[in-house]
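Prompt: I keep going back and forth on a fold encoding question. Comparing notes only helps if you start from a blank page. Show me how you would write down a chain together with its backbone fold. Please set it down just below, with no commentary around it:
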Amino acid sequence: MSRCVTVSSYSSNAYAELGQEELLARSIQVIREAAARGAELLAFPEAWCQLPLIHRNRGGYCASAEAAPGAHSLPIMEACAACRLPVLWPMLERREEGVFNTALFIGADGKLLARRDKLYLTDKEANDGVRHGRLLETADLKFGRVGSAICFDANFRDAWSRLKTEGAELVLFPSMFQATRHLAARSLEFGYYILTALTRPGAGQLIGQCGEVLAQADAEGLLVARINLNRRVIHMDNNFERAAGALAAKYGDAVRMERMDSESRFALEVVAEGLNVDDLMREFAMEPLDAYYRRMETARARAAGHGPS
């Protein structure tokens, strides 16, 4: 199975001049355009179709919330099915237990795959009655596992650590602020790609596994880029000098290795069909980055007399 995927996001402030119905129509057109450009996943900004009401009323999060499927999510589901394109559709959702700032993962068949609630709320949201997140699901798509964090979540490490534990290889970030340095640090620490969908025109970015910007939204606000999920970032220690030469000798052009000496890391990328990067890491006894750090933490605790001998 190919692990290369074309991802896309939409970043815009169209909500400031359009009503809900106009913005919904614009969003459906964006889905069609992204699909026509070969996208296999598309993300929209935070609370996207409620933003005209929130902007006009300078708040009123709960008042703008609606159930899903509903008037401004069902047409998106239908567009996903028509274009065979999975979409992250963020919204303020009214559920039995209250209102949540959430993101709906909608599959290529138009059905709801998962929800990812915003874990950390701003004062304005909490004071208006929005509930802290409860549904923290990831979506298993045909190319891999995708997660999401929403806006203010950028400030809190545990939201991102949880995504790593859940096996997310790509994290979608719908937001009302860019969080540029926050996200570079998260991707560097946890080694996944981050794709942003922002309420600022042309500001959306695709961030690589070491915090580098791989792609930027165009003037129309649409970002379309291709990534390889069959790629891992590994620490140089105990790995590169010992195993890199043997791996290259055996697999040749089927793999690529990119040194990042400034970070004492390298990337191992599989470019041939039929090979899996995690299998190759096991074959050559390459230690994953997070496992190395955990081992060092354990060693430090043991040396201080706080761990098992």
Residues 54 and 60 are 6 Å apart (CA to CA). The chain has a mean pLDDT of 95.
